[in-house]
User: Fold this.
Amino acid sequence: MFARSAAPVALGPTEESGASTAGKLSDPAWAWAPYEPDAQRPWTLRWAGHLYRRAAFGATWNQLQQALADGPQRTVEKLLRGEADVAAFNRTYDQYEAAAGDSTAADALRAWWLRRMILTPHPLLEKMTLFWHHHFAVSNDKVDSALLMQRHLQLLRSHALGRFDVLLLAMARDPAALMWLDGNANRQARPNDHFARALLESFSLGPGGCSPQDVQQSARAFTGWFVLQHQFRLIEHEHDFGSKRILGQEGNFDGDDVMRLVLQQPATPQFLVRKLYRWLITETHQPSDRLIAPLAESFARDYDVAKLVETMLRSNLFFSPAAYRRRIKCPIEFALGIIKGLEELVPTVQLGYDLAVLGQNLYHPPSIKGWEGGRAWINRSTLLGRSNLALAMLAGSGTYGEKLDPAAVARKHGCADGGAAGRFLLDLFLQGDVDPKVAEALLEPAARPSAASGGDAALPRELAHCVACLPEFHLA
Assistant:
């Protein structure tokens, strides 16, 4: 019934030309300075939607309108601190997840986390918890304990916007992480280098940041670290007290010393800044060393994650065509973008299964590298799967029931007739930033007299599904 778009995805808001900022993007002083709206770069609904896609999981209509009224800097401030009583909300959900963790049902944990993402008063905290889940990539496939995985995610969340050095130290003693990386029985006679390699190459320095000798010597430093009865234990007689040479320094190092050494290396803050750049700014190009240098230098001083995230989210670069729609949504972002906009909760056990089919199985990253992301999310099979998931959620019956009702949400916000409801849905999900010819084709059935008089109640559901299938909706 509705036309599909085959047009190239727009690179940015129509009121701003990429040429006007292209020359400044490589200048760190301009790129990381706070964005201040002006006549050439006004604060619009498009930028509010962009911010909520990156720093949250989408937005309700009221949130978008409040963001328009507040402006970018105040909206970023709200996202950083959360709203309502975040601590009370998290305590409640920690209890729910702890109850699920007492069972063997990791699927229940997955469902509770998705529910938390949908309802949280602090979506940026959950977005960053998802980032660290991808970064450390601990999987229950090997841990095989819902309880340990629940504690692991709680640890990630408690430090998600805290200090990376504190998080790294905590992660090195996390039973789930140690079990996942075969570091749960590191004996002096047989040092296991899996955990040491992951710590150096995946968690801190990045690929190429150390030598094979650094890994081997670090493995010796971690001898004596065990997991017994689901608890971290340091067994002194299993530790290798001999001298070790790691990252150019020599001494009788233990595991804590290894982490101190990697945190002193310039490669560590550079690696983390680049990874967050891909998560928050763009995944279509690598930033230059010059561009990330001031952020990496600042991050190295205190490893304050919230401060780094704040700098990125407030920046000119973030609010530029170089960042706009320059990430492909992961399956969670795709699904929650629909759910958040339609202001309801769906059955998250079913949602967890469906997202796993699309390639994002929470608590089960595919490898030590986490999810590949980017273009790997999109192929013929996953595009069809995304379309089917959106159709199931919007159907009004079946596994997702009648939870999501586009017509009811449109009416709630004063758009009762078919044409108005259609335009509302385009503004809600895409902030109106879609090719005019595509918009016209989408809205034409809704503008017919029968639709305007409420003659086709299925139209808003069908239109919402078509919008969710547009190329623009797959971009964050």
